[in-house]
Structures
1.
Amino acid sequence: MISAPHDRHELLARDLKQVVGAAASVVEQTDGWCRFDVTGPTLCDLFERLSNAPVRNMTTGRVIRGTLEHLGVFLWRRAEDHMAVLGPRSSAASLHHALISAAHSIA
C-alpha cells in the first residue's frame, strides 16, 4: 500500500503502473480506506487494549496487518509516539469509537 498527498499525486496509480509494468498490479484504493493518526505518550497502552499486535516492539516505519477490536486493519508505526491506523472506510465510525473509548479508559 502506498500513501501520498492526493492533491499532489492525483495520478499516482497510473504513474506507478508505468514504473512496475507487467511485474505487478496496481489498484486505486483511495475511497476504500480510512486513516486515523493517533499520537501521545500512552500510545502503546492504548493499542494493547485494542489489538494483540506487538506494538511495543514496532519500530518506526513498520507496518502490521492485524485486527483492532474485530476489524481488519493496518497498524503503521510513524514515530515512537505516533501510530496510523488504516481500516475499511465502511467501518470508520466503529474504528473511531473503539479508539476514543480506549483512550478514555487510559486516563
Note: The beta strands are 33-39, 63-68, 71-79, 82-88.
2.
Amino acid sequence: MSDIRIATAEDQVLLDKEAKYCSYGDTVHYIEPPRIFSRCEGSYVWDTEDQAYLDLQMWYSAVNFGYANPRLNNALKKQIDTLPQIASQYLHKGKIELSEMIAVDAKNKFGLDGRVHFNVGGSQSIEDSLKVVRNATNGKSLMFAFEGGYHGRTLGASSITSSYRYRRRYGHFGERAQFIPFPYHFRGPKGMTKEEYGSHCVQQFARLFETEYNGVWDPKVGQSEYAAFYVEPIQGTGGYVIPPMNFYRELKHVLDQHGILMVSDEIQMGFYRTGKLWSIEHFDVQPDVIVFGKALTNGLNPLGGIWAREELINPKIFPPGSTHSTFASNPLGTAVGLEMLKMTSEVDYGAMVMAKGKYFLEGLQDLQKRFPVIGDVDGLGLALRCEICGPDGFTPDKATLDYMVEEGMKGDMVVDGQKLGLILDVGGYYKNVITLAPSLEISYPEIDLGLKLLEQLLVRATQR
C-alpha cells in the first residue's frame, strides 16, 4: 500500500485556482487531491504526470465506444470542415437522417410510428419529455418514478429523481412524483425468487388503483391524476440494479389499464450498454416515450433527445415552438450520432457486448467467491454491478468502497510490470456499489487486467 499521493507543484497551482474561481456546485471530488487529466485513448486516461488509469466507468457510460474513437472523432472533424453550425430553426441533413434512423428502428422493434426531438443533453431531454407528457395528458403534472431512480438535476428532472438530497432545495417545481419500490432482489424480502419479487412489486403498485381509498384512482370517473411512469429499465445511479425479465411486461399491463404512459429513460443504458440499442428491449414491452443522451455522440458533443409515439408528438398536438434550444439538433452532434449508428449496424454489436459482459461477469463471480466483502454481483451486457458489504455479506459498506476508489486513483498498482491506476464509479442506494461501465470496445485482455486490478484493491481493502 502506498502513501498518500501529493499533487505536483504545477497541479497545485491549478487546484488553488479552482478553489478560488470555480463553482463547486457541479463538482464532487472523490479523492484528495483530485487528479488532473491530460489525455485519453481507448479504455485509458492519463494524468499530468503521464500515469495511466484503466477506466471502468467511461464518463458515466457517455463514452461507450472508447476514448478518442478514431471513426467517431473523424466524423466530428469532417463536419467541422463542412457545416459546423447552423441555427436550430434551419434544417440540415444530419438532423433528418438521424431522426429517421431512430424512428425507423423503433417502428421495426415496437411496431409504433413516432418522431424524434433533440436537445442538448439528458436532463434537458427529460424536461422536453415532461412537456410532451403533460401536453398529451391535458396538463397532468403528477408522475410515478422509482425509488433509486435518477433522471437528472434540472428542475423538472429533479422532481422525478428519488434522491431527496437533489430535490430538497430545487425539485418541487411543476411536476411531482410518487416513488415506487424497485425490484431490487438482493435487498428484497427473503424467500422469493427474482421473478416472484418482480410480480410482488407490480401487485403492490396495482393496489393503488383498487379503490378510491388506495390512493390514485377515482373509480366513479375511471381516472387518475398521474400522467406517466418514468423508468430506468436498468437503474443507473441507483446501482445498476437489474430487474427480473417479467417485471416491465407486468407493470406495463397495469399502466395500460389506467391510461398511464411509460417513459423509458435510456440516457445511461442506451446505445448498446446492455447489448441492445435500448435496454427496454430486453423486457418485451412497448414504451410510449424513450429519452436518450450521453453515448449518442460518444461524449464528443452534448446532444440528447426523445422518441415519442406519433399520437403524443405529431405537429397537431405538439406544434412548432412547444419547446426550443439554440443548440438542439446541432450538426456536429447529429453527424457523430449518425456515424455511431452506422458503425454499430455493420457488425453484430449486441452479440459482441453480451459475450464480453458474460466474460466480465464470470470474473466478478469468481472474485465474489474469494472475497466475502462482495455481497452481490450482476450484469446485463456491459452494465455490471459489484456490491461491497460487511463481513455478513449484506450490510452496506460504503467506507470500504471509498477506500478502494482512493487506492485505485493512486496509480501505484502493478500488473505484469505495468504501473496502473483504476477508475471506478460509486453508485447504489447506500453508495456501496461499484457500477462498472467499461468501454464496449474493451478487449478481453483489458477485462482480465481490470479484474486483476480489482483483486488488488480487494486485497488492500481486506488487509488494511
Note: The longest helix spans residues 349-370.
